[in-house]
Amino acid sequence: xxxxxxxxxxxxxxxxxxxxxxxxxxxxxxxxxxxxxxxxxxxxxxxxxxxxxxxxxxxxxxxxxxxxxxxxxxxxxxxxxxxxxxxxxxxxxxxxxxxxxxxxxxxxxxxxxxxxxxxxxxxxxxxxxxxxxxxxxxxxxxxxxxxxxxxxxxxxxxxxxxxxxxxxxxxxxxxxxxxxxxxxxxxxxxxxxxxxxxxxxxxxxxxxxxxxxxxxxxxxxxxxxxxxxxxxxxxxxxxxxxxxxxxxxxxxxxxxxxxxxxxxxxxxxxxxxxxxxxxxxxxxxxxxxxxxxxxxxxxxxxx
Length: 303
Fold this sequence. Notes:
By secondary structure, the chain is of the alpha+beta class.
């Protein structure tokens, strides 16, 4: 006999309008920036355009994934498609890794074989790019923060830093003529992107592997459950994140008297909601005598 708690938190729809507006702004300016980079010969500008293109892809994935998460559960997908946002974030991270490799390879080539760069044009286009990125970041920051929107916002902030790098690169070349600053700043930008990408990939992969959410201590949860007067011990305890905003728990609870179960269930649901913000709960009660002679489980006893 298992008890299920499905008090899902139905979050408001993802900010589709904000995502679409940010998508078209980012995509449009990435094309302008790429053209300016090719015309001026600036790798920093081209690299920043490539990063903005990856941001546009991330925003598109986020908008599409947000739409998929609104699909109702079915017989084949009993949770619905709420994990679409996690898959989208993971795919976006892989795209960024490819971008980092491409920027780094090209930067090394530019260091070995310097090319002329039009510093003034770089400064002008980079400044406009910085303004666009600030507006996009402001638009996204006002919406609800899911893993996708947080990832997209992180990329846009990285783009803001990239625009600053391109601006500095153009200024240095314009006033001093020192062209190595362009590929050097490009590699610095690639390192910045790599740091944020690794964090994004780790978080998305952790959710896909049904890891315990980092804000939850499994031992603390088990100890609090086992400390209830109606519970003798806890085993087969699992906590995982279904999607960005839904945490699920399942466990077997050993009781001294099955007649206490209705009241115990109410206490457990309240405890999990109030202390850990867990509302999707599946519990299996077991009578103490039924556990005699069973092995293979490590029970959690009251702390």
